[in-house]
Amino acid sequence: MAYVLRRLGFYLLAAWASLTLNFIIPRLAPGDPASAMFARFEGRVQPEAMVALRAAFGFTEAPWYVQYATYLKHLLRGDLGLSYAYYPARVSEVIGTGLLWTLGLAGCAVIISFTVGSLLGVLAAWNRGGWLDATVTPALAFLGAFPYFWLAMLALYLFGFGLGWFPLRHAYSHDLEPALSFTFAADVARHAFLPAASIVVATLGGWMLSMRNTMVATLGTDTLRLAHAKGLPPRQVMLRYAARNALLPNVTGFGMALGFVLSGSLLTEIVFSYPGTGYLLILAVRNQDYPLMQGLFLTITFAVLAANFAVDLLCLWLDPRTRAHA
């Protein structure tokens, strides 16, 4: 319990530092969102409205500690401010439009890639020199050497533009309205197949190779020799003793990958014009939408911290040595 509380305290401190930097950095930069909006609309915003706009975006003449207290109060309510590129929409609403698509696309792709890659790595290490180890491992490692956005463009050209099997862009057909129906779900799955498959193919080899190498090192330990000497079934030795110990490094990497899911697969979402948070981040940078960029960075940071804390708890459960030193 003391270990969990220490880790929780560390992550809470990191979260406070990230949101404090998120408050300070925009105020150190020249200008503010209200001035950028005034320049963007070329005088169509009255100068008298500048004070109200600055207050709406959280930039006032009040002392910094008053602004900071107001900033924290709004964050505790889940208020990330206004997006001036989508004005008057709130940042939380804009992020929410892309969050579901990113979780569905990148989240499912990372989980599938991790699960299948780790299982293939276990089987390849257990049957070293077999056909799986000799052919699939180098083939997936070769595919993983290509940038995932290049694989995405290749898949889009071959299966979307060339063969016409899959749609070229967006998350669902423009003639459909979002609804809880099989037709809409099937259309969403059809649009997500190519971008998700490109992410899985690009990352599958890394998970498999990492798991295989760790598994090979684990197979030579005294624990495995003792398990074999006891006459335990090979499948139980492979899964309960070898795979469980070899899984820890992959679980740590999975936590990082899962945390960064909210940032979206930027270039893949751009290639397919997929309306996720990564695509939103690109649009925010292009439109100089500072509040939206701040909200996205804060959301991604909190997601990474939460995922790492979850991984710490999972490692505490998987590895008895962690519990012994906690």
Automatic annotation (TrEMBL):
One of its GO terms (biological process) is transmembrane transport. Keywords: Membrane, Transmembrane, Transmembrane helix, Transport. Residues 99-315 form the ABC transmembrane type-1 domain. InterPro entries: MetI-like (IPR000515), MetI-like_sf (IPR035906). It comes from the Bacteria. The chain crosses the membrane at residues 99-127, 139-168, 188-209, 247-272, 292-318. Belongs to the binding-protein-dependent transport system permease family. GO terms for cellular component: plasma membrane. It is found in: Cell membrane. PANTHER family: OLIGOPEPTIDE TRANSPORT SYSTEM PERMEASE PROTEIN. SUPFAM superfamilies: MetI-like (SSF161098). This is Oligopeptide/dipeptide ABC transporter, permease protein. It is a multi-pass membrane protein. Its main location: membrane. Pfam families: BPD_transp_1. It comes from Myxococcus xanthus (strain DK1622).
